From TrEMBL:
Protein name: Uroporphyrinogen decarboxylase
Catalytic activity, reaction form: uroporphyrinogen I + 4 H(+) = coproporphyrinogen I + 4 CO2; uroporphyrinogen III + 4 H(+) = coproporphyrinogen III + 4 CO2
A Pfam family annotated for this UniProt entry: URO-D
One term under GO cellular component: cytosol
């Protein structure tokens, strides 16, 4: 069923921009930690200013943000994709008997799920609990989570004419305001412990879900559009780009201190199709987000692009306007650094399955990874998300090994 009447879930955008704009001085944008206006760094830990516009607590650990900006850090920061997930018993308990997307639409539950891993592990960043498929929902598509199957679109896009069913103009605050509310609540609830990351799926990845109707091993239906309907594909990708841009800007306005763009299905495209149907929109999002942040007198926050399996595009991604390029586990650190150069920070890339190893082995793998990447201009992470059957103690061993070994390397470096 299209157009699910989600407008009641959001609040007016003005609620996220308290106070008259005219009273705020505009300054040239700079990469800063918090989602503050006019360059106010009061909650970033820099000691300047007194109170942020939203009264956010002062940031106590800015290691992740400094690494993203290429600044020197005492230890290598670490966080995990899907760190708020089913591998935690408290996550499963919180989510019990609750529809997945109903959970996503509850700011209180999203806040709780985001905070759970921070209570267990000394992570250097939190990432808001949500899902990339809230964007197709904002466009009017129905998405349901089917047990044992995953996200499913009862009425996927089949013909070019189906594009007319999508909302052509999306008020992201009306449709996705619950995400912004969750970010603001979580930013306060973190009490400045670590920065909060916002995110979105990238246009090609979202398009592939919308056409496939769910997950796929080949993405044959979505890729057929690229070959049979290139103009319609570009129309859809442009629409998604515009919505994602506004969505990410709204997340910063709500309190996100960094942003990650997930191009999770990049590996289904070859170099030529990636160059035509993915990379231009990835570039446009970085450019347009930063332009709109500047126009709205919001701080520029570090942006991360994670294009899984897109080894062939690392050089281009490094020049796409993002401060950080995320890596999956199938590329050597030295090769990745050679391709991207020294102008961006790298993030990744331990094989998630390495966390099934004994704790001692995890420590050895982390040490090797840090030696290969180096401890600076680097954010440790997995090469993809945590799996539901992983032992939380092994996640803790990974986090602690990153901190211990990076400090040791820095000490003797």
């Amino acid at each position: 069923m299209w157009h699910r009447g989600m407008r009641s879930l959001g609040k007016a955008r003005s609620a996220l921009h308290a106070g008259p704009r005219a009273s705020r001085r505009r300054r040239s944008p700079r990469l800063e930690g918090p989602g503050t206006r006019g360059g106010d760094r009061s909650d970033e830990g820099g000691g300047r200013g007194t109170t942020s516009p939203k009264g956010f607590p002062k940031l106590k650990n800015d290691t992740f943000l400094r690494a993203a900006r290429g600044e020197e850090t005492e230890h290598t920061p670490v966080w995990c994709m899907r760190q708020a997930g089913r591998y935690l018993p408290e996550f499963r308990e919180t989510r019990a008997a609750q529809d997945f997307f109903d959970t996503c639409r509850s700011p209180k539950l999203c806040c709780e799920l985001t905070l759970q891993p921070l209570r267990r592990f000394p992570l250097d960043a939190a990432i808001i609990f949500s899902d990339i498929l809230v964007v197709p929902q904002a466009l009017g598509m129905e998405v349901v989570m089917v047990p044992g199957k995953g996200p499913t679109f009862p009425e996927p896009l089949k013909e070019v004419e189906d594009l007319l069913k999508l909302r052509q103009k999306v008020d992201v605050t009306a449709e996705l305001g619950y995400v912004f509310q969750a970010i603001t609540l979580t930013r306060h609830s973190l009490e400045g412990k670590v920065p909060l990351i916002g995110f979105s799926g990238a246009p090609w990845t979202l398009m592939s879900y919308m056409i496939e109707g769910g997950g796929s091993t080949t993405m044959a239906k979505a890729k057929s559009w690229l070959y049979r309907h290139p103009e319609a594909s570009h129309r859809l990708l442009r629409l998604l780009t515009d919505v994602v841009t506004d969505y990410l800007v709204g997340q910063v306005a709500a309190g996100a201190q960094a942003l990650q763009l997930f191009e999770s299905h990049a590996g289904h495209l070859g170099p030529e199709q990636f160059q035509e149907f993915a990379l231009p929109y990835i570039r446009d999002i970085a450019r347009d987000v930063k332009s709109k942040l500047k126009a709205e007198a919001l701080s520029l926050v570090p942006m991360i692009v994670f294009a899984k399996d897109a080894h062939y595009a690392l050089r281009d991604l490094a020049q796409a306007g993002y401060e950080v390029v995320g890596l999956d586990w199938t590329i050597q650190p030295q090769e990745a650094r050679a391709q991207v150069g020294k102008g961006v920070t790298l993030q990744g890339n331990l094989d998630p399955c390495a966390l099934y190893a004994p704790k001692e082995k995890i420590g050895e793998l982390v040490k090797k990874m840090l030696e290969n990447f180096g401890t600076q201009r680097y954010i440790a992470n997995l090469g993809h998300g945590l799996y539901p059957d992983m032992n939380p103690e092994h996640v803790g061993a990974f986090v602690e090994a990153v901190h211990a070994h990076s400090r040791q390397i820095n000490k003797h470096g």
